[in-house]
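[Automated response] Your request has been received and processed.

Submitted sequence:
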Amino acid sequence: MHPEVEAILESVNPDGSIIDTCEGRTINPGHGIETAWFMMQAGEVLGEPHYIELGLKLFGWQYKWGWDTQFGGIINFKDCKGFPHQDYSQDMKFWWPQCETIIAALYAYKNTGDEKYISLHKEVNSWAIEHLKDKEFGEWYGYLHRDGTVAQSAKGNLFKGPFHIPRMLVICTMLCKELSK
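Generated structure:
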């Protein structure tokens, strides 16, 4: 966690400092957003409000890095110094960061009551359904170009398995039930 760049980095030196290389400056918004809702959930379960506050801060940071203001959706990778990221999929949109963001926005709303998080939840959810869902067969595509067009039509492979979408649906259903009380 690096407040100086307002991000969680994928790799750091043993002392926690930034490794000033392409790999060391990597921000994976999806991982950070997933971490954020884990922190909010842990704070609730353990009765530790500072975990919730930390989760909210991380969510804000990672969302700001990840949300594509031009085309919508969460981008794969960013460089914390703003340099071009070297990974070929850096500006693609994968299914799982969208799932993590949908969950995190509901946790953020649950813990703050701030309507901006419901708006964000709806925006990301709508974007995901519009771009990822196969309108003929229902399952989500896994890999989109930055503009939201399908990059590869396989819906399952070594990396995209049956985990993130069902987990998102189960957790969001539970959160919505809690919020409706």
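Summary generated for your ticket: Residues 26-179 form a domain with the Glycosyltransferase fold (CATH 1.50.10.10). The chain has one domain: 26-179.
If you did not submit this request, please reply to this message.
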